[in-house]
Design brief:
This protein has 270 residues and is mostly helical. Helices cover 60% and strands 0% of the residues. It contains 16 helices and no strands. It folds into two domains: 126 residues, no CATH class; 102 residues, no CATH class.
């Protein structure tokens, strides 16, 4: 996977990126210095039994802002959990992966649709309620879809909303405030940053405070692979530094991308 390059007027091509003589050296330098968190296979919430899950998701759905949304979750969540229960595996994450939904990306709803039809429960409205409830259990950390799935199969505003209410409300509020206080960050960059951080937290677990430099670099790579671009990358990096998530001594995104030209030791001694 190549190093992500942000499009748009904020930055130009990263120094050293695109030079066919040394892409491996650039890649290995920043990967070694800033590794992303590994993909977890087991954690407490995903091992919860059905009774525990019912309490978790009801609590997560109860704080959603709209009564219409809460009603949709109330009817859709039981169906979604029934579908996952029918998949092989000992944890909710294992069942999610075994269902094939993660690998299916944008077409993941075909699995739930077929399940509803087999059980004689299919209707368009029931499928809509069922699939729209998935992000509630993502926010509750029962399953952690891949970065690729979250960037394609997930819905931007819905994912952020469920991560705010189900995972880290204060963290996202702080992030939004910092974006709004920075005159260089426009609305589109704010939305990109909020969504990007929601995706990282959903895929890797924890709160915004747990995000690492490597996590951000990784998602920029994946965005470029999935979408061909990673808008507002520099804005995301800057705000997370200002929020204290990445650390004030963390090099800028442009500096990290130029590791092929300057050594890690040189950057570390800034």
């Amino acid at each position: 996977m190549t190093t992500a390059v942000e499009t748009g007027p904020a930055t130009g091509p990263a120094p050293g990126v695109g030079d066919p003589t040394e892409p491996q050296r650039v890649q290995s330098d920043w990967r070694a210095r800033y590794p992303a968190r590994s993909v977890a296979t087991d954690w407490p919430a995903t091992r919860a039994d059905r009774n525990e899950v019912d309490h978790i998701v009801v609590a997560a759905a109860s704080v959603l802002p709209s009564e219409r949304v809460r009603e949709a979750r109330r009817w859709g969540l039981p169906l979604l959990l029934d579908w996952l229960t029918d998949q092989p595996g000992g944890t909710w994450q294992q069942r999610w992966l075994a269902s094939g939904a993660d690998a299916a990306g944008e077409d993941w709803a075909r699995g739930p649709e077929q399940w509803l039809r087999r059980h004689g429960k299919y209707s368009e409205n029931r499928l809509r309620l069922m699939t729209s409830s998935l992000l509630v259990i993502v926010g509750a950390d029962l399953v952690r879809p891949s970065l690729e799935w979250l960037l394609t199969g997930g819905k931007k505003r819905k994912l952020v909303r469920n991560m705010v209410h189900g995972r880290d409300g204060s963290g996202f509020d702080r992030l939004r405030q910092l974006c709004e206080q920075d005159p260089a960050i426009k609305l589109a960059a704010l939305q990109d940053t909020m969504f990007r951080c929601a995706v990282i937290a959903a895929a890797r677990g924890g709160t915004l405070a747990d995000i690492t430099v490597g996590d951000v670099l990784e998602i920029l790579d994946v965005e470029c692979a999935v979408r061909g671009r990673a808008d507002s990358a520099s804005a995301t990096f800057r705000v997370l530094r200002e929020a204290g998530v990445l650390g004030a001594d963390t090099p800028t995104l442009q500096e990290i991308r130029s590791l092929g030209q300057r050594s890690v030791a040189q950057l570390g001694g800034r």
